[in-house]
Amino acid sequence: MQNQKNSSNTNASRLPREEELFHLLEELYGGIPEAEETLSAIRRGEVDAFLVSTDEGEKIYTLKTAEHPYRVLIEQMREGAALLSIDGTILFSNISLAHLLAMPLEKLIGESIHTFIAPAGAASFQKMLDAGNPAGSAGENALQAHREGKVPVHLSLRLLSMEGTQVFSLVATDMTERKQAEETLQRAYGELEDRVRERTAELAESNVRLRAEVEERKRAEEKLRESEERYRSVFATSHAVMLIIDPETGDIVDANPAASAYYGYPRDGLTGMKISEINMLDEDAVHAEMQKAKTGEQHHFSFRHRLAGGEIRDVDVYSGIIVIHGRRLLHSIIHDVTDRRRAEEALRESEEKYARFFWDDLTGDSLASADGQILACNPAFLAIFGFSSFDEALASNIQSLYPDPGDRADILHLLQKERVLYHHALILRRRDGRLVNIVANMVGVFDDAGELVGTQGYMYDDTDRKRAEDILKESEERYRILVELSPDAILLEQDNRFTYANPAAVRLFRASSPEDFAGKSTFDLVHPDYHALIDTRTREILAKGSVPPVEIKIVRFDGQDVYVESSRALVPHKGKPASIRVMRDITRRKQAEEALLRHTQDLNRLNRELKTARDEANLYLDILTHDVRNANNVSMMYADLILDMLKGDPKTYAQKLHNGIWRSNEILQNVATIRRIHEGSTDLSPIDLDAAIRKEIGSFPAASIRYEGQPIEVCADGLLPVIFTNLIGNAVKFGGPDVEITILVEERDGEVLVSVEDTGPGIPDEIKEKLFHRFERGQTKASGQGLGLYICRTLIERYGGRVWVEDRVPGHPEEGAAFRFTLQDVTQHGHVS
After folding, report:
1. Is 364:437 a contact under the CB 8 Å cutoff?
2. Are the C-beta atoms of residues 441 and 203 closer than 8 Å to each other?
3. d(CA 68, CA 49)
4. What is the pLDDT of residues 551-573, one digit of tens each?
5. Angstrom distance (rounded) from CA 352 to CA 566
């Protein structure tokens, strides 16, 4: 600037021409917004390189730290990511964190991260913040999602320096599914083990009781058969109790010795008694029963007889007609069944107890013949296999439940050999065709010859547990694939020796194969300078279970030293403790950090230079928009006086001078408007569109303008009339004295569509798209500086609309142009910003 001032003093006698001033103005004003846009693009990471003109020629400077790829990567991460201020305010967040917290992204920015930390984890998270570890820290915590409860997460926090300001980078990994899977699996295993133990004990006890009851029943029946055989012996010699009774009178005609011994009366005493004196029924009931025996209607009776000692005994009486000396008498054989009745009652109670156990059992219990016919089953069996009723089940063959007929044959073969099968896994078919996983305990039923005649099955549906097991296997396979495909080196260490290395580890250490790591320890791969640090972190991980990542130096197999970021955590492996070590090559990152520091310093220097340039430009703009305009106004006044005084050619030249000064004022007005646009407030408010249009129409009293307005409020500011000033002024300027202008306003799809149509010469298609760019003009002979339409586009886009130009009559550009643009209707949007 000092050189320019000296030059100006030396050549004070020579003043610059008008066109030189205009050209200088355009260059100065045009360079400043471009410089501001360039700086903003550099800050946004949208510029990877820029060209700078110097005295030595043009040079290209590359921005190696352009952050756009990293921003895309962060936006697409499944993990939640954010930048936090020192006090925890969220400065940036990706969409994954917004989903994790169940909040819209725009509402999340500016909130405090402490709002979303669950109370139980607030202290540990604050401790991470207070530590401010540049190497980073991590740990499990819980986030309080908006209206959705707590979300378990793994938080990774690191202190960064960005443009001289310290911020925290936060990465949150959702652990909900893993936690739920671990809890569900643990519960399932516990319930299954308890259930197996209980059912095994119950089944064993039930089988023992059942065998005892069956043997007891067999013994009772055997005694009954032996008793019947004895009592069929000859009346006199039989030990069976026998009585000869007159059915008409009830008199005991005869009794064998066994009867005398049984009832406790001497034979003579018995033969002098009536049967009603022994039978506990009343005399009429006894007589009625004897008539049934006499007529052959009934031969077997169950009574209660009183012995001589007063004891009441249960007896079974078999009576039939015999003829003795012409008398029709009843030959009754009396069996004392008191003990058998008691045994039967006990057996009945036992069967009822077993039946209750059978019917109430939660496992599907069934009894089937060897050929598969279902003989009995409980409700749980119906539910497991989808039978609608017991009748349907008992009418079915259990073979129909086996998808493979050979499976049933295999079970029968095993039962014949083993007699009992425990925890036998099967895949059976429900009635609806769906396959279910079954775990069954099977007991064979054998005849006296030892041949299998039936099966007892105790089954439970294991489908849910099997499905959970399959899901766990799939999850393990997914994690295995993730480890194999991980770009980070992952190594498994057990007993101070590496037992696994993923492909990334092979690449990082430049090994030939994973087998190269076998038998090696951490100390074999870490630079000796970091052995003490490894010892310290080993003690920490044994105490805490995990440690935050740390930067260390490793030694590759080819001897090269490389910096890596290393983290480690304890895990169980094959029933023994082990540790997973994850390493990431940070060579490029450290180079990038160094380059970032250098470029930050360069950008700060450029920013200072641009600020100085902007201040100079503003000085020139102040001179142009104030001092030059004042000079133009004086010149315009003298030009008006000269026009009134001159005639002929001198007047023509004076008119051209007058027009040039008027155009100069117009350009200065556009420059001032653009400056107001860039420096003014961006806040919008409701503006009466109809009033603004009518006011601008009043500024063109000589023009033919047709407008039928309606009261509409739009989102805009005080510069809205500038749009109509430029569009109407262009139509008047380029359309000639006979041009007709029509202004249309209509509401469409929540927007307000405004059209300014004219009957002027129109605009060719090839330049329609260029009109709204800076310094572009139409192909008419009328002059213009190309700023008016650029100002219109800038203001309309600022108001949230768009602008374009069409043929007034489609397909006929010579019939005039139609400039159309949209504005936001306040009543539709309900707010302004």
Report:
1. no
2. yes
3. 13
4. 999 999 999 999 999 988 888 88
5. 69
